[in-house]
Amino acid sequence: MSIEVNNESAIPVDEAAILRLAAFALDTMHVHADAELAIVLVDEGAMEQLHVQWMDEPGPTDVLSFPMDELRPGTEEEETPPGLLGDIVLCPQVAKEQAETAGHSTLDELLLLTTHGVLHLLGFDHAEPAEEKEMFGIQRDILIAFAMQERQRH
Fold this sequence. Notes:
Layout: E1 2-7, H1 15-28, E2 36-41, H2 44-55, E3 63-67, E4 84-90, H3 92-102, H4 106-121, H5 129-153
Parallel strand pairs: 1-2, 2-4
Antiparallel strand pairs: 3-4
Helix pairs in contact: 1-4, 3-4, 4-5
C-alpha cells in the first residue's frame, strides 16, 4: 500500500499513527495493496481555499476527499483493482476545536477524519439517512478495531 502523509500545517501531529490507521482502514475495506493514497494536513487558510473552490462553501472545514480512480471496497474474495485512490486533506486546527468539543484528543479526531475521508474515497456518502447509518457504522467499526490493534502494539 502506498500511503503518503504530508504535514504542511503548523501543528505537529502523529503522522505515523495516521499512516497506520489509513493502512488499517484500506486493509479492512479490502483495497488492493498497490493502491495509492495521499493524506495532506494543511492550515486553515489553505483548507478554506479548497473548501470554497471545491464545495462552494465558506470557511475552513475538517476534511475533504478527492477521489481519483473511483475505486470501491473489495471483499475477502476479491480486492479492489490496484489504482490511485485519491487525496484526503485534513485541517488539524479545525480537528483540534472539534476534539475539544467532543471531549477527546486531537489525534483521535484526526484518525476519525482520516477514516471518514477513506470511506468517501471508496464511494460512501452520508447525504441520506440510510447512507449515513451505513457509513458511520463502518467508520465506527474501523476505529474500534484500530484502537484495539493499537493497544496490542503497546
